[in-house]
Amino acid sequence: xxxxxxxxxxxxxxxxxxxxxxxxxxxxxxxxxxxxxxxxxxxxxxxxxxxxxxxxxxxxxxxxxxxxxxxxxxxxxxxxxxxxxxxxxxxxxxxxxxxxxxxxxxxxxxxxxxxxxxxxxxxxxxxxxxxxxxxxxxxxxxxxxxxxxxxxxxxxxxxxxxxxxxxxxxxxxxxxxxxxxxxxxxxxxxxxxxxxxxxxxxxxxxxxxxxxxxxxxxxxxxxxxxxxxxxxxxxxxxxxxxxxxxxxxxxxxxxxxxxxxxxxxxxxxxxxxxxxxxxxxxxxxxxxxxxxxxxxxxxxxxxxxxxxxxxxxxxxxxxxxxxxxxxxxxxxxxxxxxxxxxxxxxxxxxxxxxxxxxxxxxxxxxxxxxxxxxxxxxxxxxxxxxxxxxxxxxxxxxxxxxxxxxxxxxxxxxxxxxxxxxxxxxxxxxxxxxxxxxxxxxxxxxxxxxxxxxxxxx
Length: 458
Ligand SMILES: Nc1ncnc2c1ncn2[C@@H]1O[C@H](COP(=O)(O)OP(=O)(O)OP(=O)(O)O)[C@@H](O)[C@H]1O
Hints:
This is Sigma-54-dependent Fis family transcriptional regulator. It is a single chain. This protein has helices spanning about 15-25, 40-45, 70-80, 95-100, 115-135, 155-170, 185-195, 215-220, 240, 255-270, 295-300, 305-310, 330-345, 355-360, 365-380, 415-430, 435-440, 445-455; strands at about 5-10, 30-35, 50-55, 85-90, 105-110, 145, 150, 175-180, 205, 245-250, 270, 280, 285-290, 315-320, 350, 385. By secondary structure, it is α/β, with parallel strands linked by helices. The longest helix has 19 residues, at about 115-135. The protein folds into four domains: about 5-135, Rossmann fold (3-Layer(aba) Sandwich); about 150-320, Rossmann fold (3-Layer(aba) Sandwich), CATH 3.40.50.300; about 325-385, Orthogonal Bundle (Helicase, Ruva Protein, domain 3), CATH 1.10.8; about 405-455, Arc Repressor Mutant, subunit A, CATH 1.10.10.60. The strands form five sheets. The protein has a five-stranded parallel β-sheet with strand order 2-1-3-4-5, with helices on both faces. It has a five-stranded parallel β-sheet with strand order 9-10-13-8-14. Strands 6-7 form a two-stranded antiparallel sheet. Bound molecules: adenosine-5'-triphosphate.
């Protein structure tokens, strides 16, 4: 991309800025488009493509929280992860601007600027874009984030994961994601889709653990009106909804053998038959499945069909648990601290050294989801602007210790809340932290279990 041929978009609610940039670039680049209202940004991008986008950090027209720029940056990168976005920022906003770099912006420029500096920034961004477009010329890099900041990680296992995603995403291979609860399987599934040739087509998730035997077929394959009592209308299932795009089957290790047989038939034939219909419907899906269940052990004991495994695991990706990701714990903790501080209208907190040590020493059986909740809780409850070790309390579930026996309880005052809490702890422990299995045994959905974990501060 040469400078002269560049098409540049400037989004800022300050007309003076727009006018000045237009005057400056008019004779330098092929096209300059200015836009005052960020709400028009996405429609504009769907009509026209730009080599670089200058985006204001803070639009006066909206809430003025300083995060509007970050929000619009996210929306742009959701559409096109390769977009070159340069944030326009004021002096007081530098820390937010730095965050925008982590979130995927290419660079930022501080207002007011010298014209030379502006042109230099644009030139550097265009060159970076050109380098990215020709991988042969690019230097190997070590990203701390991937797929528009959604997947953070700097550790060796994460670098390997990013590498795999890059390789596998733009293929049609069925991918099986393995890993403990909360390691980011769903995020990886989305990243694979976003980087695939199907990126502009639907990404449809089906949480198989949440589907009882009764609704499994109709949820996945759809149904015809009147085919069962509640079938008031024809309804398409997840397979059809995902056709031409990606279908993400979450918790695939949790389905029964009859469900496995139905799934296998649909995948083999590349067509589904809606409940109550005789007519097969062809579907064109790319399949991504995920599970935290030991699929191969289940197959060895005939609880999971081997032929279904072969169908879904053209490529297998195992996500590392957080305890094996070294300093990523701290990277993620800082990320979540900034996120939840912003969300709760608080300044971004610092971490005491002892806190960082405590976070690194913890084993994080619930992985990133557990860290996320722990940091959110700490940010909300902390007294000052520094997170101290005591702001992080790890519950019995997270720090292995003998679970109190339920039978011992009647000797003291019997509190219903405590009984519930201890039952949950015991069941989760029995399943080695596997939330899906624990929820199943408790007879509640995973979401309901997570809600109770929150309620009991676990
Ligand atoms: N590398 C990461 N960087 C930032 N956030 C992450 C990362 N990995 C996971 N998360 C966050 O952690 C939470 C759990 O991730 P996700 O739901 O993808 O995990 P999962 O492996 O699918 O969990 P489960 O097996 O319980 O369904 C989400 O809120 C997600 O955004």
